[in-house]
């Protein structure tokens, strides 16, 4: 890999130019590289800042399908010991009676694994540095992007000009490349804000993820591995109405911890913060189109959803698997990566799958957000029915594992 941010002669043309070197963009570069596809990766951030201790307290649920992808591109040895298996998921309406427990049989494995985002980044960046098929341009960004019949040319803010066959926007929710291409977005605000942090807690979590629904929004506790001192840890995602968010932000840590403790109903005993507090507004957006001439949009640039089901990153990794499979198949037939037929196949494959996952997530958010005793009673009745129906439980567990629908080969075991 060339880790480049210098001016001078233009690097050689590569198959892909990936704008955005985050979790999805860098996984794409690595998965493509393992298939013999070369890439320029452009990221405005400094990798050292992204992996600095305490810079990001967020954690991600990695589904079984996404773990298969990491395994198939060689990341499993670096990540194996860093992920906490999700042995079961407890879903409850405000901790009232009538909860659902999703617990797979022993031979079926776990429902996924929880990783600190920092650990995922370190593994990806270390692998990218060893990969000659990746040219990594850091602390720079695209100031000119030209897409034409014969390829793509991008000028970077550090003066370099790079060339490729296909431009990929992996810049996240605010993707300028997607917006410049004029892709129409279905989007709306949830008028909620997610507060994210880590907790130390007195009692072990036993690998259980808790999804506690309150009228103001979901409250999720996600299991992490014990730290080096043996302290029990979980990630917290607490959703509050936007009108209350300023008050929660202004709380001193002690008051914030008290509020969190109250909503946990003592399931993990005494708690304290283990990571910085972060917050972000919750929005839904879905691009009706994800390809244009020599352009593909992936990850949060294409779709953003409520974190209620923890599927945002996993949906982006499904984009990665599908795009690499389409590119590999086409290039085997002698087509170049920017070929319109290949891009049309990618769009058709991903559009329906991503929309179905997002619609289900949005429906769940709205269902559990209806206030009042009657709504709560109806929800608990429905949850009781799921608890007693093995087929329904199996469906939801397959969804959580990411094992439903037409899976790309990279996401299969």
From TrEMBL:
InterPro entries: FAD-bd, FAD/NAD-bd_sf, Ubi_Hdrlase_CS, UbiH/COQ6, UbiH/COQ6_monooxygenase
Gene3D superfamilies given in the database record: FAD/NAD(P)-binding domain
Swiss-Prot/TrEMBL keywords: FAD, Flavoprotein, Monooxygenase, Oxidoreductase, Ubiquinone
Coiled coil ranges: none
Biological process according to GO: ubiquinone biosynthetic process
Molecular function per GO: FAD binding; monooxygenase activity; oxidoreductase activity, acting on paired donors, with incorporation or reduction of molecular oxygen
Cofactor: FAD
Metabolic or biological pathway: Cofactor biosynthesis; ubiquinone biosynthesis
Keyword Flavoprotein belongs to the record: yes
PROSITE patterns in the record: UBIH (PS01304)
UniProt cross-references to Pfam families, sorted A to Z: FAD_binding_3
Domain (FAD-binding) ranges: 15-350
GO cellular component, one term: ubiquinone biosynthesis complex
UniProt record similarity statement: Belongs to the UbiH/COQ6 family.
Record protein name field: Ubiquinone biosynthesis protein UbiH
Organism: Novosphingobium resinovorum
